[in-house]
Amino acid sequence: MRVVDEEEELYPSTPGKVKVERSGAAAMSGQLHRCFASTGTMFLWALLLVAMTATYLSFRSLADTSSSRYFTASWGGLHWERQIRASASPRRPPWSAEGAGLSVLVTGAAGFVGAHCSLALRKRGDGVVGIDNFNSYYDPSLKKARRALLGSHGVFVVDGDINDGRLLAKLFDVVPFTHVLHLAAQAGVRYAMENPSSYVHSNIAGLVSLLEACKDADPQPAIVWASSSSVYGLNDLVPFSEAHRTDLPASLYAATKKAGEEITHTYNHIYGLSVTGLRFFTVYGPWGRPDMAYFFFTRNILQGKPITVYRGRDHVDLARDFTYIDDVVRGSLAALDTAGRSTGTGGKKRGPAPYRIFNLGNTSPVTVPTLVAILERCLMVKAKKHVVEMPGNGDVPFTHANISLAREELGYKPTTSLEMGLKKFVRWYLSYYGYNRGTHAFRNHL
Ligand SMILES: O=C(O)[C@H]1O[C@H](OP(=O)(O)OP(=O)(O)OC[C@H]2O[C@@H](n3ccc(=O)[nH]c3=O)[C@H](O)[C@@H]2O)[C@H](O)[C@@H](O)[C@@H]1O
């Protein structure tokens, strides 16, 4: 009885397959027992039963070792492969001014930065395939809307998890991706105290699973991935430069991003994978993440609900180097364009490959009260502010990027002020969610 219970837990979405075989085998043995009573025949059938049980057990262990829960995944098949190939094919000829198009696997493609980057790549003629697990960290309907937008531009997004090694291997089998833009992650600084294991699942285990697939792929892709400004942690030298220490994380989120930098370094060192880590600084904009302050402040202000504004020690305001999505997209695409090749084949390094890290910030920090004041102006509604001392929840008092390195090597040059970017965000927010009261006034105002 207990065995069956455990199985139900193991195969929650496929109760039929394995159990049917087993109960089928048991029923069959009963019938056989009645029909063939002679000892010799019984012995033969007993042997057959043992063989069947052995086959079943080896199938089960295979299922276990290859992450059985993915056996039911809705991917695979000729039609699916055709969709993947079509989506991955660059649409600009190799002799075009920009050169041959890239073929990019974007993880977290239904996420905020992932959707914007996928769209930008597609628009300039690169091939893009997305993968996203559509988890419910925030409203999955927003992720699905982003996927629909991508679909309307010919970008196919696979519904799957980067921890599914079989799926990743299949994708690399079907398409020789030139690049991977790895943006799938468990984001959010403060949520790490609520659900620490989700950070390990996505940012550590998921990253390793992806790197394993990349190192085995032939050709190996170049990897550009999202690290975070949070790796600077308690570093108090400003502006934050790539040369500063990053061994003082203030949150588990930051620690997993820092670990990601070390893990990618290992794969670069052992397998010759070309790696570029981008330290994003509080990225915001249209189609953004509802868990971020600017987003839910907007919602609460419009709904007349209070917002909590954290303040640092000695009444010092918190500040962030808020960076507009379009600037980050330009930096990310430049990172893909300048990424040198991976050098390994057959899982073996054939020579040194590039390992790079860049800050992608705005270089002009803004305090949280100023962020609120800008939103109040955009929304023409006064916020109900509730100012509290910053709780010990992983937040750092300020961030400020030095972007010299990205400017030199990527030509990165952010051009959007927080005022301008928030205007665009609010315009999108109102058009996406609709807001009956005074929508027209807002439209004219923006
Ligand atoms: O730069 C980064 O690397 C990180 O930027 C953001 O993290 P964070 O800067 O904390 O962004 P928000 O959660 O939007 O918070 C912005 C500011 O508002 C403050 N805040 C947040 C929430 C709140 O209720 N009240 C409040 O004052 C925070 O303390 C922080 O100073 C993202 O959420 C992370 O995923 C990302 O990695």
TrEMBL record:
Domain NAD-dependent epimerase/dehydratase: 104-338
Entry's transmembrane regions: 42-59
Entry EC no(s): 5.1.3.6
One GO CC term on file: Golgi cisterna membrane
Presence of the UniProt keyword Isomerase in the record: yes
Entry keyword set: Isomerase, Membrane, NAD, Transmembrane, Transmembrane helix
Record InterPro entries: Epimerase_deHydtase, NAD(P)-bd_dom_sf
SUPFAM superfamilies registered for this protein in UniProt: NAD(P)-binding Rossmann-fold domains
One Pfam family hit: Epimerase
Main location class: Golgi
Protein localization: Golgi apparatus, Golgi stack membrane
Membrane topology of the entry: Multi-pass membrane protein
Protein's UniProt keywords contain Transmembrane helix: yes
Enzymatic reactions: UDP-alpha-D-glucuronate = UDP-alpha-D-galacturonate
GO MF assignments: UDP-glucuronate 4-epimerase activity
Family designation: Belongs to the NAD(P)-dependent epimerase/dehydratase family.
Alphabetized PANTHER family for the sequence: EPIMERASE-RELATED
Protein name: UDP-glucuronate 4-epimerase
Organism: Oryza meyeriana var. granulata
Organism taxonomic ancestry: Eukaryota, Viridiplantae, Streptophyta, Embryophyta, Tracheophyta
